[in-house]
Amino acid sequence: MIVEDIPQVGRLFYKIFRKKAVNSPDTFNDYFEKLFFGSPIYDPQYGSFVHETAGGTISSAVSAIPMQYMVEGEIITARLLCAFMTDPDVSCLGAAELALTMRPRHQDLCFTDSASPVSANHFRAVSGAILPLHGLEWCRVFQPAAYLAQSAAKRSSLVRYAARLPLARPLDYLTRRVMPALHIEGDPVMHDEEMSQDLFVASVQDFLPGYKVRPVWSKPELDWILEVARLNTGNGSLNIRSVWDYNAELTGCFVYFGRPGSIAQVLNIFAKKGKEHAVINQMMYHLDQSGFVAAQGRVQPAQLDVLSRHRAMFYRHRAHVCVSTRHKSVTDAIHRNDIFIGGLAGESWSRLVTDFF
User: Fold this and answer.
1) How does pLDDT run across 210-235, given as a tens digit for each residue?
2) Count of CB atoms situated within 10 Å of the CB of 68
3) Residue 151 pLDDT class (50, 70, 90 cuts)
4) Residues 268 and 163: beta-carbon distance below 8 Å
5) pLDDT confidence of 62, banded at 50, 70, 90?
């Protein structure tokens, strides 16, 4: 894919994902260019793909963001695959040919955390791996009535209007009085505070050494990811919070989108080994005290046990997480759930997920 392809790819995006046969607006095209061509580590060989018909029309496309990963001490450039789209009114040959480019023997590492069942089938067909636990979303409810109202409002304009009425507040007040499990007890020796981007970028690798396959997140790359993530205001502003113990030691941090009164969208939770419970509990306490009706995020298998100890928690399948690689060390890490994918190492910070409708 080259920059000049964006208007055609944008029209295809709107046709497939927004069910609109329209040209993509300039705001979409500008954002698409920034997202898929603007990374400081961008190189065409790690970029997006298109398939053209004999007449020069783009019939299929796979958008990709390059991301550096550490694999057994070696840095490689991976592809984060985002939208996989093909025109249903044109031959499916394009989709098949693009799927073949994702065969393991062609890829150091390519992955997606947002695959549909059809895309997951393409990965299976070319011998890619599916990571079922990473595809789960956890949800911790703080205010049940408000959470149900907001969830239902996404599917009905009538309920959307009703959700603006202050009906849920008295119900939640009574519910929280009779159901203590909804409360989060704070730990008096822990506290959280706003974390500067510089401190986050400088510290985040301290929480990842346990993963054999993990993002490098150099300062230029992670600064760029956070810059683009801040443009995604559909779910509220981007927040980074640090978690400290009584010795003033940084034990972890968490990153989320949200505004009080909404459902917090947690991108990542980072914690030092053995401190996962303290960090996750402090995050839940902060979100509850800040007035969020619920919090949700993608499962990291290493944190699943701690998350499952919280009450008022449920899980659901969110999307398929798929990986293709020619490196046996990556395949082995997948089998051990020893690979870090999701959040800032995924697609959920992109405006394409929540915007341009």
Assistant:
1) 899 999 999 999 999 999 999 999 99
2) 17
3) confident
4) no
5) very high
What is the pLDDT, as a whole number, of residue 173? 77
**Token pair in block for residue 328:** 């046996």
Placement of tokens 């069910």 in the chain: 19
The encoded tokens of residue 64 equal: 């990709």
Angle subtended at Cα 91 by Cα 86 and Cα 94, rounded to the nearest 5 degrees: 50
Q: Stretch 325-344: mean pLDDT, rounded? A: 95
Three-class DSSP category at 123:
helix
Coil vs helix vs strand at 200: helix
Determine the Cα–Cα distance for residues 227 and 15; give it in Å rounded to an integer.
Answer: 28
Q: What are phi and psi of 242, to 5 degrees?
A: -95, 150
Residue linked to tokens 């150091």: 108
| Backbone dihedral angles phi then psi of residue 186, each to the nearest 5 degrees | -75, 150
Residue identified by tokens 């060989």 is: 45
Tokens for 291, please give them: 């007035």
Q: Which residue has the tokens 């070319």?
A: 126
Fill in the amino acid letter for 323: V
Contact 84, 115 (CB under 8 A): yes
State how far the alpha carbon of 330 is from the alpha carbons of 115, 202, 326, in Å: 20, 26, 8
What gap in Å lies between CA 202 and CA 205, rounded to an integer? 7
User: One-letter amino acid identity for 14?
Assistant: Y
Task: Single out the residue of 272, 296, 302 nearest to residue 204, CA to CA.
Answer: 272
DSSP string covering 169-186, please? Answer: HHHHHHHHHH-GGGS-PP
Q: Is 0.90 topped by the overall pTM?
A: yes
Q: Helical H runs in the chain?
A: 6-17, 26-37, 93-100, 117-125, 144-153, 157-163, 168-178, 197-203, 219-229, 276-289, 304-308, 328-335, 351-354
Amino acid at 301: P
- Upper half-sphere CA count for residue 111 (Cβ side, 13 Å): 30
pLDDT tens string 2-58: 999 999 999 999 999 999 999 999 999 999 999 999 999 999 999 999 999 988 899
User: Do β-strands 320-324 and 213-215 pair in parallel, antiparallel, or remain unpaired?
Assistant: unpaired
Q: What whole-number distance in Å separates Cα of residue 341 and Cα of residue 343? A: 7
